[in-house]
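yo

u said u wanted the structure for the complex thing, so here. seqs first:
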Amino acid sequence: MEEREIEGLRFGTVRFGGVTRQACLDFVPEARCGDYVIVHVGFAISRVDAEEAERTYRLLEEMEALEGEPGGLEDELGKDGG
Amino acid sequence: MKYLDEYRDPALARRLVEEIRRGATRPWVLMEICGGQTHTLVKYGIEELLGSCIELVHGPGCPVCVTPLEIVDRAIAIASIPEVVFVSYGDMLRVPGSHSDLFRVKAGGGDVRIAYSPMDALRLARENPQRSVVFFAVGFETTAPANAMAVWQAKREGLRNFSMLVSHVLVPPAIRLLLEQSASRVQGFIAPGHVCTVMGYEEYEELARRYKVPFVVGGFEPLDLLEAILLLVRQLEEGRAQVENQYVRSVSRSGNQAARRRMMEVFEVVDRNWRGIGPIAQSGYRLRPEYAAFDAEKIFGVETISAPEPPECISAMVLQGLKKPVDCPMFGTRCTPATPMGAPMVSSEGACAVYYQYRRHTAPAGAQT
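structre next:
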């Protein structure tokens, strides 16, 4: 995520799968490079809570007791994403 | 993509479906409010997967669908003025007004442009100081922070050629109206995850207490929605009526403080008319008096334009969850996404358009033509 300022507002480059877009980050002052954010009409409205996302998914997984490796969440954490 | 693929896992989805079916000792009627959730539920055939134990009815949470006819007519009037650059989210262009739509204004030479964000309109205003740039600010609590920021920024920069046609609506007052109707069959609600990302869910706690009906704040992927349905079924089976949060990775109880502060600086709560539903008290936003210089309705004097709704379209019943799109005799015949008779057939989040896209080849439940 690259950051820059436009007319006093904080913007960042956010990658959505293969597409990148500028999003205003003023509503997510806590967001840092590498975080995942939810973007709505050009504005990040939340920083995805990685711990909560993982906890929810683990609960779902426990229900299933999946065979083999449990997901790849940790492998992907920390990658550039927005 | 991370946080998306995991929430589409078919094995987990099957497990959740089984769990829901096992947990439901009787059929329950649930409503999802947000059009984005309607889209996922119909696209993935979740209602069919669940069978007869759960009936899903679709709520009024499609912003394009509930924007009142007179506001569309006001937009058309403003967009037809030669010096105006009228900027809108793409979905609004095909929404039928009383006599025309914004696409026809564009085809007739009007300068109507599609934008992804209100900040695009702000940039146009900076780059074209000789033109009057008007942004069509529709939507629920999810788009309100962006629109508030655009106006706030325009004031800060002293842009005199930027204004907004504001028609913002709020989810909780519409739910309250649905709950007070005697015809309402809804026993539990999936609360909209992105609206709650901005606003939090304290307002829903009040609704749950007052009307003794459970809410689960849900996300937008199939597993999110299945988990939300499971949590609702558990509450209903145990006789609880609380607010639970399934979409914890994005939603906190008090929402996004920075966004709410900016919205409150720029907007004030006002009575709003909802297309297909009618007036709902304290159900939307308008610009505060300090921002009157950016209010397109005042600048262009269109506040008196009013419009009666056509009687044929059953969108009112669809938006309130009283009828399904396939119950309409015009569905898929006279009314299609290419020739919409009502707003729910226009937007990709509108219940009629979603049914048309994914379910028009399956036998209609009510209306066999």
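The first strand of chain A starts at residue 3 and ends at 6. DSSP finds two helices and five strands in chain A.
cya
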